[in-house]
Amino acid sequence: MKYSEEISNKLNELLIKNYDAEKGYLNAIENVDSDKLKMYFKRRASERSEFAKELRTEILQYGEIPEDSGSFKGTMHRNWTSLKATFSSNNEEMVLEEAINGEEASLEEYNELLKERNMPPSIDSLLLKHKTAIQSAINTEKVHEELVS
């Protein structure tokens, strides 16, 4: 496998995760009543959409084809979250818990990729920027969770 294809494959994996995260946040909006949480989730979805655009651009710069949708696993998780929210006594807490779990999984993916030493500095910088924003989202979601529990 050539170098550009290897990098693009790894970035495509992150791209799919970002599509899933964006859709997850849009789904979360439908499962909470608080206008503040709705706005927060909308901002997170927009941020993940921007991450996806940035990753797509990087993949295209390497002459490869970016993925154009999320994963089946992500779709199943969103359906499960919606079902759980339907039967939960505290939708907002449950939705925030799921958001935290999803972001922590994303953070792990970014950390794994950042451990690799074969990435160009521009990609390392982009991944570090995304990772920092994801960590910030986790911290904020934990505060929101404390407030609604």
Tally of separate helices:
5
**Biggest sheet record:** none
Estimate the mean pLDDT confidence: 85
Helix percent band: over 70%
Bulk shape: elongated
Element-by-element helix/strand order: HHHHH
Task: Give the CA-CA distance, first to last residue.
Answer: 49 Å
Number of E-state strands: 0
User: How many individual domains?
Assistant: 1
Question: How many whole angstroms does the radius of gyration measure?
Answer: 16 Å
- Secondary structure class reads mainly alpha
Q: Give the oligomeric state.
A: single chain
Give the low-pLDDT segments.
none
Beta-strand residue fraction: under 5%
CATH homologous group name: Ferritin, core subunit, four-helix bundle
CATH architecture identity: Up-down Bundle
Instruction: Assign the CATH topology.
Output: Ferritin
Level-1 CATH class name: Mainly Alpha
